[in-house]
Structure formats: C-alpha cells, structure tokens
Amino acid sequence: MTLRDAARAACASHTFRHNWISRPNLKFSLETLGLNRNASRDVITRDLISKIDLIMQNRSGISMKALDLNLYSCENIDFAYLDSWLRIAVTPGIEELILTLPLPSIVFETAPPIVSVYNFPCSLLSNGSGNSIQYLNLCYCTLRPTAGLGCLRSLTRLHMYCTQITGDELWCLLLNSPALVCLKIWYCEEIISLKIPSLLQGLRFLEVAECDRLQVVESNAPNLTTFYFEGFIGEISLGGSLQVKTLCMICLRQTNIVCYARQSLVSIAPNVETLTISSPNEMVNTPMLSSKFLHLKLLQISMGMAFSGVYDYLSLVSFLDASPCLENFILAISQHRMGHASILGEPSHDLRQIPQQRHDKLKSVTITGFCSAKSLVELTCHILENTTSLDCLTLDTTCHPSCSVTKSDKCHPLMDGDSLVEAQKALLAIRRYVAGKVPSMVKLNILEPCSRCHVVESLVSTAKLS
C-alpha cells in the first residue's frame, strides 16, 4: 500500500489509523513514499524530509522493531532531523536499523574544504537501548564508538559501507558485540589494521572489500566459515582456523594473485572446500609445491589477459595436483586480444605432458574465454588424459563473460573482430587437439559466438587461421 492510499484509509477508519501508526517496521525511500524520482534534488529532499518527519513525529513514544532510512537521493540534509528520528526509533525493542545517507557534501567556502559527514550518535546505543538491536547497517556516515558504548548483546549482523571508522574504533565496537555472526566492511578507508577478537565465538561470515588503506587483516574468531576479500592483499591471518570452508579473494589491482594463493592459502585456510580467486594478470607461473588443499571441492580461478603471453596455463596443474578431493574446476579467462603463442600449426607430438598426475575425483571442468593458446590446450588435454572421473567438459570460446542474444536481438557483449577471429581459432584447436581425446562417457560442451556476433563473419572468413 502506498503512503497516499494508507493516509486515505486512515481517514476512513480509526482502527486502520491506529494499526498503521503502530506499525513496527518502517521503510522510507522514494519508492515507499511514492515520490517523483525525476524531480530535482532539492524537491526530492524537501518532500522526503517533510513526509518522514511527519510520520516519525506521530510515532514518538511508540516503540518500533525496524527502521530503514534510505536518503541517498537527498542532498544538504539538516542532520538535526536525523538526530530527532533516531531518538524516536532507537529505544529498547529496536531490532533493525538501516541508515543510507547521501554522498557527503563538501563545503568549499572554508580553507581547507570541509567534508560534511553525519556522525552517528553512539550514545543512543548506551543505557540498554542497544540491547535488542540485531542488525545495524550504516552507509555514508561516521561511527566513533568509545569505551563507554553499551553492550550490543543481540547484534548478529553489522554492515558498514563508506563508513568513517578507524581500526581501533571498530575493535571497540566488536568487543561490545559478542553475538556477532556476520560482519561486512566496504570502502571504509580509515581502517589500516582490521583485527577480529577471539571473543566473537559465533562469527561465521567476514566480508572485507575495497578498504584502500587496509594493510592487515587478523581474525582470531575460532568459528569463521566464510571469508570474502576484495582489494589489495597485505598481511592476512585467519588464526589458522580449521573452520573456514569458503574463501574468496578478488584482487583487480594486484598481479600474481594465483601464485600467491597457491603459496599462502593452504596455511591461511587449510580446510577450505570452496576457493575463488580473481587476478587481473599473472606474470609468474603457478609453482609446484608439496602443500595440499586436502578438502577442496570447488576451485574457481578468474584471470585477466597477460598480453605478454608469459603465463603458462599448464602450471595450473599445481592446483589440481594439490587438491585430491577436487570435483569442480572453473577457469575464466578475460581476453580481447591473445598474447600467447597459438597451438595452430604445432605438431601434436610437441604437446607437453606432466606424468604421474591423477585427478580421480574431478567431475566437471569449465573453461570460459577458451582460446588457441598452446599452454591452455595442453592443460585441457592433461585433464582429459589424467581424469577417470570426469563427467562434463565445457569449453566456451566467447569473450568472458559469454556473449548471448537477448530478446531484443542484441548481443551483450558483442564480440569485436579480433575476438571473433580468435574464437574461430579456438574452435579449430578444439577439433584438432581436444575432441579426439574426450572419452565416450564424458559430455563435451562447446560454446561458440552467438548469431548476432556473426555480423562480422566476413571479417572472419578473410582471416588466416594459422
């Protein structure tokens, strides 16, 4: 029911009005208040503030369980309104608080310019008012907890996005949140060292992303099961936790992450079962080591294109050899121009082989962005020749992510001429070197450029596949 319909119903029925005013969960946004998204920012701010203020003042003295304030579309908000609304909402009994503020404004009249950021009143969480809160989500504000912060004994989920808080202040907050289960930290640039105390016995999920100044992540939470990291890798320690089963590392501004993962992640998370790695470029081959991922079942590696062509895809056998329980292997290669030497024109007896490597649990292998690079074909052939358990092999020759024709008969992304030429080379390499090695019990899926991409077929027909 929209706000206008609710107001009309309230005018017609005192019972409905009482129930609506006493509603325990409130969510305020442009959509829920039925405001015009195409209006100017000033008009949006004026209307949103006036309507929220009227509703919140009518709720004074009435406890609520959840408040979701989405003010992202506003600008130049008078922070006194926020203070007033939070005093009304954050009382004993509140369970969820989501606060999404607009991008901080900059006051250029001063020297140096002042960035105006809302300072969340932590005092509201003291004196028992924060005892009931279970979910706290803060976006584009400042959080300065102190030693006097009350115990948030019910807090299980803490999400912070573009929140100004230091590592020491976060440590203070975590010490007062013993029931925490899920912690997400995004774009919190004041944090240099993130430390998780062993007090958090129930912490299961930790997500840290794009904290540019972060140098150290040290978790002593004994029961952490999922760790998601995105950004620049510094020093990472999970306390040798035996419970971490899912680990994801996405590093788009740092090279040789696959090599780092092979060398370091066994000691960081020895019992990991699902491992996802994303690297923009690999200039160092993956080393063969004696350390093992004894419980790894799903391995997903995303790699950017090394235009120099120095990386040897066959070296990824190191991961396969180190993972005796591996069942699913996904390799995604993003490339628009291949820098590796093509296998086309090579005699089949020149293909390298790695003897005495068996992968007896591997069932599914998917390679997207498959190209005619010799080392990639060698990796594929190695898997086929040394895996008796394989059920399915998928080779996607389109750009990563795969192209596809939409209902509007448009392809996204449309492959350019170079990519389409390489896709045709990849198909030829599959037919010449791979298809004949596929056992009859293995399903081979070959994905080709979509029909829309073939608008440049004339370009492909003139290219030399050599």
From TrEMBL:
It comes from the Eukaryota. Residues 55-451 form the At1g61320/AtMIF1 LRR domain. SUPFAM superfamilies: L domain-like (SSF52058). InterPro entries: At1g61320/At1g61330-like (IPR053772), LRR_At1g61320_AtMIF1 (IPR055357), LRR_dom_sf (IPR032675). Pfam families: LRR_At1g61320_AtMIF1. This is At1g61320/AtMIF1 LRR domain-containing protein.
